[in-house]
Amino acid sequence: MISTEKLASIREQFPVTKRQLYLDSGHQTPLSSSVRDALVSFLTEGYEMAGPKPVWVRRVEETRANVARFFNASPSEIAFTKNTSEGLNIAANAVPLEAGDNVVLIEGDHPNNAYAWLNLKSKGVEVRFVPLKDSEIATAETFEPFIDKRTKVITLSHVTFHAGQVHDLASIGKLCKERGIYLVVDAMQSVGVIPLDVKALNISVMAAGTHKGLLVPQGLGVLYVADGLDELRPAYLAMSSMLNPPADYIARPEDMAVRKDALRFEFGNVNLPDLHALDAAIKLIESVGVSEIQKHVNELGDRLLSEMEALDITVVGPRASGQRNHIYVLELPVAEWADFFARNNIRVSPERGGIRVSLAMFNTVEDIERLVEVIRIGLLNKTRRPTAAQMD
Ligand SMILES: Cc1ncc(COP(=O)(O)O)c(C=O)c1O
Protein backbone atom coordinates (compact mmCIF):
# COMPACT_ATOMS: atom_id res chain seq x y z
CA MET A 1 0.00 0.00 0.00
CA ILE A 2 1.19 3.53 -0.70
CA SER A 3 2.11 5.12 2.66
CA THR A 4 -0.33 7.57 4.27
CA GLU A 5 2.08 10.50 3.85
CA LYS A 6 2.74 9.66 0.22
CA LEU A 7 -0.97 9.29 -0.43
CA ALA A 8 -1.61 12.70 1.11
CA SER A 9 0.99 14.29 -1.18
CA ILE A 10 -0.47 12.48 -4.21
CA ARG A 11 -3.93 13.78 -3.30
CA GLU A 12 -2.50 17.29 -3.09
CA GLN A 13 -1.51 16.84 -6.74
CA PHE A 14 -5.13 16.07 -7.69
CA PRO A 15 -7.40 18.90 -6.50
CA VAL A 16 -10.44 16.97 -7.73
CA THR A 17 -10.07 14.79 -4.62
CA LYS A 18 -11.19 17.76 -2.53
CA ARG A 19 -14.28 18.38 -4.64
CA GLN A 20 -15.79 15.01 -5.35
CA LEU A 21 -15.36 11.30 -4.95
CA TYR A 22 -13.62 10.53 -8.21
CA LEU A 23 -13.91 6.85 -9.15
CA ASP A 24 -13.77 7.27 -12.91
CA SER A 25 -10.13 7.14 -13.99
CA GLY A 26 -11.05 4.37 -16.45
CA HIS A 27 -12.99 7.07 -18.29
CA GLN A 28 -10.56 9.93 -18.10
CA THR A 29 -7.98 11.22 -15.70
CA PRO A 30 -8.48 14.32 -13.61
CA LEU A 31 -5.45 16.57 -14.13
CA SER A 32 -2.66 16.76 -11.58
CA SER A 33 -1.05 20.07 -10.65
CA SER A 34 2.24 19.04 -12.24
CA VAL A 35 0.52 18.19 -15.52
CA ARG A 36 -1.40 21.46 -15.47
CA ASP A 37 1.85 23.34 -14.75
CA ALA A 38 3.55 21.66 -17.71
CA LEU A 39 0.66 22.69 -19.97
CA VAL A 40 0.71 26.25 -18.65
CA SER A 41 4.49 26.54 -19.21
CA PHE A 42 4.06 25.28 -22.74
CA LEU A 43 1.25 27.76 -23.44
CA THR A 44 3.30 30.58 -21.91
CA GLU A 45 6.22 29.77 -24.20
CA GLY A 46 3.91 29.77 -27.21
CA TYR A 47 2.24 32.97 -26.04
CA GLU A 48 5.39 34.90 -25.27
CA MET A 49 7.81 33.51 -27.84
CA ALA A 50 5.56 32.08 -30.57
CA GLY A 51 7.15 28.75 -29.78
CA PRO A 52 10.80 27.84 -29.34
CA LYS A 53 10.17 24.96 -31.74
CA PRO A 54 13.68 23.43 -31.67
CA VAL A 55 13.42 23.33 -27.87
CA TRP A 56 9.97 21.74 -28.08
CA VAL A 57 11.17 19.19 -30.61
CA ARG A 58 14.15 18.32 -28.40
CA ARG A 59 11.74 17.81 -25.51
CA VAL A 60 9.61 15.50 -27.66
CA GLU A 61 12.66 13.29 -28.13
CA GLU A 62 13.33 13.34 -24.38
CA THR A 63 9.71 12.33 -23.78
CA ARG A 64 10.03 9.57 -26.38
CA ALA A 65 13.04 8.20 -24.50
CA ASN A 66 11.15 8.38 -21.19
CA VAL A 67 8.09 6.65 -22.67
CA ALA A 68 10.32 3.95 -24.16
CA ARG A 69 11.98 3.30 -20.79
CA PHE A 70 8.55 3.15 -19.18
CA PHE A 71 7.63 0.16 -21.40
CA ASN A 72 11.11 -1.38 -21.58
CA ALA A 73 11.28 -0.43 -25.25
CA SER A 74 13.87 1.57 -27.13
CA PRO A 75 13.09 5.11 -28.35
CA SER A 76 13.26 3.84 -31.93
CA GLU A 77 10.19 1.69 -31.17
CA ILE A 78 7.91 4.53 -30.05
CA ALA A 79 5.75 6.74 -32.29
CA PHE A 80 3.29 9.36 -31.10
CA THR A 81 -0.24 9.22 -32.44
CA LYS A 82 -3.58 10.83 -31.70
CA ASN A 83 -5.18 8.04 -29.65
CA THR A 84 -5.59 4.29 -29.28
CA SER A 85 -7.81 3.94 -32.34
CA GLU A 86 -5.25 5.58 -34.59
CA GLY A 87 -2.55 3.23 -33.32
CA LEU A 88 -4.73 0.16 -33.85
CA ASN A 89 -5.73 1.27 -37.34
CA ILE A 90 -2.07 1.88 -38.16
CA ALA A 91 -1.36 -1.70 -37.07
CA ALA A 92 -4.32 -3.15 -38.98
CA ASN A 93 -3.15 -1.49 -42.19
CA ALA A 94 0.55 -2.17 -41.69
CA VAL A 95 0.55 -5.92 -41.05
CA PRO A 96 0.96 -7.80 -44.36
CA LEU A 97 -2.40 -9.54 -44.73
CA GLU A 98 -3.79 -11.34 -47.75
CA ALA A 99 -7.27 -12.54 -48.63
CA GLY A 100 -7.89 -15.74 -46.67
CA ASP A 101 -5.68 -14.72 -43.72
CA ASN A 102 -7.43 -14.33 -40.40
CA VAL A 103 -7.26 -12.09 -37.37
CA VAL A 104 -8.55 -13.27 -33.98
CA LEU A 105 -10.26 -10.96 -31.48
CA ILE A 106 -12.36 -11.33 -28.36
CA GLU A 107 -16.10 -10.87 -28.77
CA GLY A 108 -17.26 -7.69 -27.05
CA ASP A 109 -13.78 -6.17 -26.78
CA HIS A 110 -13.50 -2.42 -27.36
CA PRO A 111 -15.18 -1.48 -30.66
CA ASN A 112 -12.30 0.85 -31.54
CA ASN A 113 -10.13 -2.22 -31.93
CA ALA A 114 -12.79 -4.41 -33.56
CA TYR A 115 -13.63 -1.88 -36.29
CA ALA A 116 -9.98 -1.40 -37.26
CA TRP A 117 -9.82 -5.10 -38.21
CA LEU A 118 -13.39 -5.51 -39.45
CA ASN A 119 -12.50 -2.84 -41.99
CA LEU A 120 -10.17 -5.39 -43.60
CA LYS A 121 -13.02 -7.75 -44.46
CA SER A 122 -13.35 -5.88 -47.76
CA LYS A 123 -9.84 -7.19 -48.60
CA GLY A 124 -10.94 -10.76 -47.89
CA VAL A 125 -9.38 -10.92 -44.42
CA GLU A 126 -11.40 -13.08 -42.03
CA VAL A 127 -12.10 -11.68 -38.56
CA ARG A 128 -12.73 -14.37 -35.93
CA PHE A 129 -14.37 -13.51 -32.63
CA VAL A 130 -13.63 -15.64 -29.59
CA PRO A 131 -16.48 -15.78 -27.05
CA LEU A 132 -15.47 -15.10 -23.45
CA LYS A 133 -17.47 -14.62 -20.26
CA ASP A 134 -17.02 -11.30 -18.43
CA SER A 135 -15.99 -13.26 -15.34
CA GLU A 136 -13.13 -14.98 -17.19
CA ILE A 137 -9.83 -13.83 -18.63
CA ALA A 138 -8.27 -14.77 -21.94
CA THR A 139 -5.17 -16.96 -21.93
CA ALA A 140 -3.32 -18.81 -24.68
CA GLU A 141 -5.83 -21.67 -24.24
CA THR A 142 -8.71 -19.32 -25.02
CA PHE A 143 -7.21 -18.59 -28.43
CA GLU A 144 -5.75 -22.01 -29.34
CA PRO A 145 -8.96 -23.53 -30.79
CA PHE A 146 -9.49 -20.48 -33.01
CA ILE A 147 -6.10 -20.22 -34.67
CA ASP A 148 -4.72 -22.02 -37.69
CA LYS A 149 -2.00 -21.61 -40.33
CA ARG A 150 -3.72 -18.54 -41.77
CA THR A 151 -3.92 -16.72 -38.42
CA LYS A 152 -1.68 -13.68 -38.70
CA VAL A 153 -2.82 -11.53 -35.77
CA ILE A 154 -4.21 -11.95 -32.27
CA THR A 155 -5.42 -8.65 -30.89
CA LEU A 156 -7.02 -7.74 -27.58
CA SER A 157 -7.24 -5.21 -24.80
CA HIS A 158 -4.86 -5.84 -21.95
CA VAL A 159 -7.49 -4.67 -19.45
CA THR A 160 -11.12 -4.55 -20.56
CA PHE A 161 -13.11 -1.36 -20.13
CA HIS A 162 -16.41 -3.16 -19.53
CA ALA A 163 -15.51 -5.79 -16.93
CA GLY A 164 -11.97 -4.98 -15.80
CA GLN A 165 -10.55 -8.34 -16.87
CA VAL A 166 -6.74 -8.44 -17.02
CA HIS A 167 -5.97 -10.84 -19.83
CA ASP A 168 -2.94 -13.08 -19.59
CA LEU A 169 -0.66 -11.42 -22.11
CA ALA A 170 2.30 -13.53 -21.02
CA SER A 171 0.81 -16.83 -22.21
CA ILE A 172 -0.79 -15.22 -25.27
CA GLY A 173 2.54 -13.60 -26.19
CA LYS A 174 4.29 -16.96 -25.87
CA LEU A 175 1.71 -18.61 -28.11
CA CYS A 176 2.11 -15.85 -30.71
CA LYS A 177 5.89 -16.22 -30.66
CA GLU A 178 5.70 -20.00 -31.14
CA ARG A 179 3.20 -19.73 -34.03
CA GLY A 180 4.64 -16.65 -35.76
CA ILE A 181 1.52 -14.57 -35.06
CA TYR A 182 1.62 -10.81 -34.48
CA LEU A 183 0.32 -9.80 -31.05
CA VAL A 184 -1.36 -6.39 -31.18
CA VAL A 185 -2.37 -5.02 -27.79
CA ASP A 186 -4.75 -2.22 -26.86
CA ALA A 187 -3.18 -1.03 -23.61
CA MET A 188 -5.44 2.00 -23.12
CA GLN A 189 -6.78 0.73 -19.79
CA SER A 190 -3.54 -0.70 -18.43
CA VAL A 191 -0.87 1.93 -19.12
CA GLY A 192 0.22 3.61 -15.92
CA VAL A 193 -1.63 1.18 -13.63
CA ILE A 194 0.01 -2.14 -14.56
CA PRO A 195 3.73 -2.44 -15.28
CA LEU A 196 4.14 -3.26 -18.96
CA ASP A 197 7.25 -4.85 -20.38
CA VAL A 198 6.66 -5.11 -24.12
CA LYS A 199 9.70 -7.35 -24.61
CA ALA A 200 8.88 -9.85 -21.86
CA LEU A 201 5.30 -10.08 -23.17
CA ASN A 202 6.42 -10.51 -26.79
CA ILE A 203 4.13 -7.74 -27.99
CA SER A 204 4.51 -6.83 -31.67
CA VAL A 205 2.47 -3.62 -31.61
CA MET A 206 0.94 -1.83 -28.66
CA ALA A 207 -1.38 1.16 -28.88
CA ALA A 208 -2.69 3.36 -26.10
CA GLY A 209 -4.13 6.78 -25.58
CA THR A 210 -2.70 8.79 -22.70
CA HIS A 211 -5.83 10.28 -21.10
CA LYS A 212 -6.42 7.60 -18.46
CA GLY A 213 -3.50 5.99 -16.61
CA LEU A 214 -0.97 8.29 -18.28
CA LEU A 215 -2.72 11.33 -16.79
CA VAL A 216 -2.85 13.81 -19.67
CA PRO A 217 -5.77 15.35 -21.59
CA GLN A 218 -7.22 13.61 -24.66
CA GLY A 219 -5.47 13.88 -28.02
CA LEU A 220 -2.19 12.00 -27.64
CA GLY A 221 -1.48 8.33 -28.20
CA VAL A 222 1.58 6.15 -27.85
CA LEU A 223 2.37 3.44 -30.38
CA TYR A 224 5.00 0.77 -29.80
CA VAL A 225 6.20 -1.14 -32.86
CA ALA A 226 8.85 -3.76 -32.15
CA ASP A 227 12.17 -3.16 -33.90
CA GLY A 228 12.81 -5.57 -36.72
CA LEU A 229 9.23 -5.81 -38.01
CA ASP A 230 10.34 -4.10 -41.22
CA GLU A 231 7.56 -5.79 -43.19
CA LEU A 232 5.02 -3.56 -41.38
CA ARG A 233 4.51 -0.74 -43.86
CA PRO A 234 2.81 2.57 -43.09
CA ALA A 235 -0.40 3.19 -45.00
CA TYR A 236 0.24 6.95 -44.86
CA LEU A 237 3.46 8.77 -45.56
CA ALA A 238 4.71 12.18 -44.57
CA MET A 239 8.19 13.66 -44.65
CA SER A 240 8.75 12.49 -41.09
CA SER A 241 8.21 8.88 -42.23
CA MET A 242 10.98 8.99 -44.84
CA LEU A 243 14.44 7.52 -44.51
CA ASN A 244 15.98 10.44 -46.43
CA PRO A 245 13.75 13.46 -45.89
CA PRO A 246 14.69 16.00 -48.57
CA ALA A 247 16.54 18.97 -47.07
CA ASP A 248 15.04 21.23 -49.77
CA TYR A 249 11.50 20.00 -49.03
CA ILE A 250 11.00 18.69 -52.57
CA ALA A 251 9.56 15.17 -52.64
CA ARG A 252 11.46 12.92 -55.10
CA PRO A 253 9.51 9.91 -56.39
CA GLU A 254 12.73 7.94 -56.99
CA ASP A 255 13.49 7.86 -53.28
CA MET A 256 10.52 6.38 -51.43
CA ALA A 257 12.49 4.52 -48.78
CA VAL A 258 10.79 4.77 -45.40
CA ARG A 259 12.45 4.83 -42.00
CA LYS A 260 13.10 1.53 -40.27
CA ASP A 261 12.07 2.72 -36.82
CA ALA A 262 8.59 3.41 -35.42
CA LEU A 263 8.80 6.98 -36.66
CA ARG A 264 7.71 5.71 -40.05
CA PHE A 265 4.24 5.66 -38.43
CA GLU A 266 4.38 9.22 -37.09
CA PHE A 267 2.90 11.71 -39.52
CA GLY A 268 3.78 15.39 -39.41
CA ASN A 269 3.54 17.57 -36.33
CA VAL A 270 2.63 15.92 -33.07
CA ASN A 271 0.54 17.03 -30.09
CA LEU A 272 3.19 19.26 -28.48
CA PRO A 273 1.14 20.49 -25.48
CA ASP A 274 0.17 16.96 -24.50
CA LEU A 275 3.72 15.73 -24.97
CA HIS A 276 4.91 18.31 -22.46
CA ALA A 277 2.13 17.15 -20.15
CA LEU A 278 3.10 13.51 -20.66
CA ASP A 279 6.64 14.09 -19.53
CA ALA A 280 5.37 15.62 -16.28
CA ALA A 281 2.87 12.78 -15.89
CA ILE A 282 5.49 10.08 -16.30
CA LYS A 283 7.65 11.77 -13.67
CA LEU A 284 4.68 11.81 -11.29
CA ILE A 285 3.84 8.15 -11.98
CA GLU A 286 7.47 7.12 -11.55
CA SER A 287 7.71 9.04 -8.27
CA VAL A 288 5.15 6.55 -6.96
CA GLY A 289 6.06 3.54 -9.13
CA VAL A 290 3.68 1.62 -11.39
CA SER A 291 4.06 -1.53 -9.27
CA GLU A 292 3.10 0.45 -6.17
CA ILE A 293 0.11 1.95 -7.98
CA GLN A 294 -0.91 -1.54 -9.06
CA LYS A 295 -0.63 -2.89 -5.51
CA HIS A 296 -2.56 0.08 -4.17
CA VAL A 297 -5.52 -0.20 -6.54
CA ASN A 298 -5.62 -3.97 -6.04
CA GLU A 299 -5.84 -3.59 -2.28
CA LEU A 300 -8.64 -1.07 -2.69
CA GLY A 301 -10.24 -3.54 -5.10
CA ASP A 302 -10.01 -6.34 -2.48
CA ARG A 303 -11.84 -4.12 -0.03
CA LEU A 304 -14.47 -3.17 -2.60
CA LEU A 305 -15.07 -6.81 -3.51
CA SER A 306 -15.57 -7.90 0.10
CA GLU A 307 -17.91 -4.97 0.77
CA MET A 308 -19.94 -5.81 -2.34
CA GLU A 309 -20.13 -9.44 -1.26
CA ALA A 310 -21.49 -8.33 2.13
CA LEU A 311 -24.12 -6.24 0.34
CA ASP A 312 -24.91 -9.08 -2.05
CA ILE A 313 -24.02 -6.98 -5.09
CA THR A 314 -22.48 -8.91 -7.96
CA VAL A 315 -19.24 -7.65 -9.46
CA VAL A 316 -19.30 -8.42 -13.17
CA GLY A 317 -15.62 -9.23 -13.82
CA PRO A 318 -13.24 -11.84 -12.41
CA ARG A 319 -12.52 -11.98 -8.67
CA ALA A 320 -9.17 -13.72 -8.50
CA SER A 321 -6.24 -11.43 -7.88
CA GLY A 322 -4.08 -11.07 -10.97
CA GLN A 323 -7.20 -11.29 -13.14
CA ARG A 324 -8.48 -7.84 -12.16
CA ASN A 325 -6.79 -4.57 -11.30
CA HIS A 326 -8.49 -1.19 -11.01
CA ILE A 327 -11.82 -1.58 -12.84
CA TYR A 328 -14.83 -3.04 -11.04
CA VAL A 329 -18.29 -3.10 -12.59
CA LEU A 330 -21.06 -3.40 -10.03
CA GLU A 331 -24.22 -5.06 -11.22
CA LEU A 332 -26.48 -2.13 -10.33
CA PRO A 333 -29.06 -1.05 -12.92
CA VAL A 334 -27.65 2.03 -14.64
CA ALA A 335 -31.07 3.65 -15.10
CA GLU A 336 -31.60 3.65 -11.34
CA TRP A 337 -28.10 4.26 -10.05
CA ALA A 338 -26.18 6.57 -12.39
CA ASP A 339 -28.07 9.71 -11.36
CA PHE A 340 -28.09 8.65 -7.74
CA PHE A 341 -24.28 8.56 -7.65
CA ALA A 342 -24.08 11.90 -9.47
CA ARG A 343 -26.44 13.49 -6.92
CA ASN A 344 -24.18 12.17 -4.17
CA ASN A 345 -21.14 13.76 -5.84
CA ILE A 346 -19.61 10.44 -6.82
CA ARG A 347 -18.18 10.20 -10.30
CA VAL A 348 -18.47 6.73 -11.86
CA SER A 349 -19.32 5.48 -15.38
CA PRO A 350 -22.40 3.72 -16.71
CA GLU A 351 -21.28 0.49 -18.33
CA ARG A 352 -22.96 -2.32 -20.24
CA GLY A 353 -23.03 -4.55 -17.15
CA GLY A 354 -23.79 -1.89 -14.52
CA ILE A 355 -21.91 0.91 -12.77
CA ARG A 356 -18.15 1.06 -13.34
CA VAL A 357 -15.90 2.05 -10.49
CA SER A 358 -12.31 2.68 -11.58
CA LEU A 359 -9.52 3.32 -9.14
CA ALA A 360 -6.35 5.39 -9.36
CA MET A 361 -3.28 6.19 -7.31
CA PHE A 362 -5.11 9.00 -5.46
CA ASN A 363 -8.02 6.88 -4.20
CA THR A 364 -8.14 5.78 -0.57
CA VAL A 365 -9.83 3.27 1.71
CA GLU A 366 -12.02 6.16 2.87
CA ASP A 367 -13.15 6.61 -0.75
CA ILE A 368 -14.30 2.98 -0.79
CA GLU A 369 -16.02 3.41 2.58
CA ARG A 370 -17.87 6.48 1.32
CA LEU A 371 -18.95 4.64 -1.82
CA VAL A 372 -20.23 1.71 0.25
CA GLU A 373 -22.09 4.05 2.62
CA VAL A 374 -23.84 5.71 -0.34
CA ILE A 375 -24.71 2.34 -1.89
CA ARG A 376 -26.18 1.22 1.45
CA ILE A 377 -28.38 4.33 1.54
CA GLY A 378 -29.42 3.73 -2.05
CA LEU A 379 -30.34 0.13 -1.33
CA LEU A 380 -32.32 1.12 1.75
CA ASN A 381 -34.23 3.80 -0.11
CA LYS A 382 -34.79 1.41 -2.94
CA THR A 383 -36.46 -1.20 -0.70
CA ARG A 384 -38.64 1.53 0.78
CA ARG A 385 -39.41 3.38 -2.44
CA PRO A 386 -38.59 1.48 -5.60
CA THR A 387 -38.43 4.16 -8.30
CA ALA A 388 -35.22 5.88 -9.41
CA ALA A 389 -36.67 9.33 -8.92
CA GLN A 390 -37.22 8.60 -5.25
CA MET A 391 -33.78 7.25 -4.51
CA ASP A 392 -32.44 10.23 -2.54
C1 LIG B 1 -9.79 -0.56 -24.06
C2 LIG B 1 -10.00 0.79 -24.68
N1 LIG B 1 -9.51 1.05 -25.91
C3 LIG B 1 -9.69 2.25 -26.49
C4 LIG B 1 -10.37 3.26 -25.85
C5 LIG B 1 -10.52 4.59 -26.47
O1 LIG B 1 -9.94 4.72 -27.72
P1 LIG B 1 -9.30 6.10 -28.17
O2 LIG B 1 -8.07 6.33 -27.35
O3 LIG B 1 -9.01 5.91 -29.59
O4 LIG B 1 -10.31 7.17 -27.95
C6 LIG B 1 -10.90 3.03 -24.58
C7 LIG B 1 -11.67 4.03 -23.82
O5 LIG B 1 -11.74 5.19 -23.98
C8 LIG B 1 -10.71 1.77 -23.98
O6 LIG B 1 -11.20 1.52 -22.77
Structural class by helix and strand composition: alpha/beta
Classify the helix fraction into a percent range: 25-40%
Rg of Cα set: 22 Å
How many domains would you count in the coordinates? Answer: 2
Mean pLDDT: 96
CATH topology (fold) name of the largest domain: Aspartate Aminotransferase, domain 2
Domain Aminotransferase class V: 22-371
Protein name: Aminotransferase class V-fold PLP-dependent enzyme
Pfam families: Aminotran_5
InterPro entries: Aminotrans_V_dom, PyrdxlP-dep_Trfase, PyrdxlP-dep_Trfase_major, PyrdxlP-dep_Trfase_small
Describe the structure in your own words.
The protein contains 12 helices and 12 strands. It has 392 residues and is of the alpha/beta class. It has 2 domains: 4-30 and 289-390, Alpha-Beta Complex (Aspartate Aminotransferase, domain 1), CATH 3.90.1150; 35-286, 3-Layer(aba) Sandwich (Aspartate Aminotransferase, domain 2), CATH 3.40.640.10. The strands form 3 sheets. A 7-stranded mixed sheet has the order 2-8-7-6-5-3-4, sandwiched between helices. Helix 8 (169-179) links the parallel strand 5 (151-157) and strand 6. The longest helix has 21 residues, at 290-310. It is globular and about 75 Å long. The structure holds pyridoxal-5'-phosphate. Pyridoxal-5'-phosphate is lined by residues 83-85, 110, 112, 157, 161, 186, 188-189, 209. Residues 22-371 form the Aminotransferase class V domain. This is Aminotransferase class V-fold PLP-dependent enzyme.
